[in-house]
Hints:
The chain has a six-stranded mixed beta sheet, sandwiched between helices. Strands 2-1-4-5 form a four-stranded antiparallel beta sheet, covered by helices on one side. It has helices spanning 43-50, 73-78, 96-105, 111-124, 140-153, 170-187, 198-204, 222-227, 229-234; strands at residues 3-14, 17-28, 32-36, 58-63, 66-67, 81-83, 158-162, 190-194, 207-212, 215-220. Helix 3 (96-105) crosses helix 4, helix 3 (96-105) runs parallel beside helix 5 (140-153) and helix 4 (111-124) packs across helix 5 (140-153). By secondary structure, the chain is α/β, with parallel strands linked by helices. The chain has nine helices and ten strands. The two termini are 30 Å apart. The protein has two domains: 1-80 and 157-243, 3-Layer(aba) Sandwich (Rossmann fold), CATH 3.40.50; 88-155, no CATH class. It is globular. Adenosine-5'-triphosphate is lined by residues 14, 17, 19, 37, 39-45.
Amino acid sequence: MSTALEVRDVSKSFRGVQALSEVEIDVAEGSIVGIIGPNGAGKTTFFNVIAGALRPDTGHVKLFGKDVSGMSPHRISRLGMARTFQLMRPFGSMTVRENVVAAALSRGGNHRGAHHHAHDVIEATGMAAWADMVSDSLHTAALKRLELARVLATRPRLLLLDEVLAGLVPAERAPVVELLAHLRESEGLTLVFVEHIMQAVMQLSDSVVVFDRGRVIASGEPAEVVADPTVVEAYLGQELPGA
Ligand SMILES: Nc1ncnc2c1ncn2[C@@H]1O[C@H](COP(=O)(O)OP(=O)(O)OP(=O)(O)O)[C@@H](O)[C@H]1O
């Protein structure tokens, strides 16, 4: 299987705070990798570096074999990486459909093609019932799905998900987890997701990477990783739910 993401020796500090230290990660194409770690471990900084929002101090990042270190977020997204944000930012006065069409058009192509693709994405993300509603009127669970629909409309090959389940009650989480598993199966999407909800991490991930104080302290199969004494220790004082 080819490698979607290769991270080598990536370090990043902020005025004395070592946010990332010599991080090395490989993500196989079509796999689902969960990123966990206590607060302040470096997870968001890691996403910012691989998506091009921050330039690493050292090391390199390869996306589908191409060195993207130091490239702009825009160029990296052109190569097939997309990300969701914890703070969702749809165009509030536009409907769900208009938002998804706009996202599809941002990748070029014509209106007809964008409408067609948006329709498919809205169906796939279970948003059909909300398609003509103004985004401002959506509740949190629907907004999360809209955020997913918008990134999927850009036809990514690698999707970075930042706590897409946060703020959802358990009954609302299950359909999103199912959707993500389905997208990998049907589209061959590669998913890298930061998540605090361990049940979802265990259920979705082929492998889990654990950050602590800027370092990768463990990686491997979910069950092995959460039983690792180093990981349990890193979470001392903080809960590792579901472990
Ligand atoms: N722009 C910045 N300027 C200064 N320090 C920063 C900046 N961004 C992150 N840091 C520091 O880098 C470290 C890693 O932060 P980061 O946000 O990546 O952790 P995290 O694992 O995403 O945490 P959380 O789970 O709480 O979101 C922390 O000590 C944080 O205070």
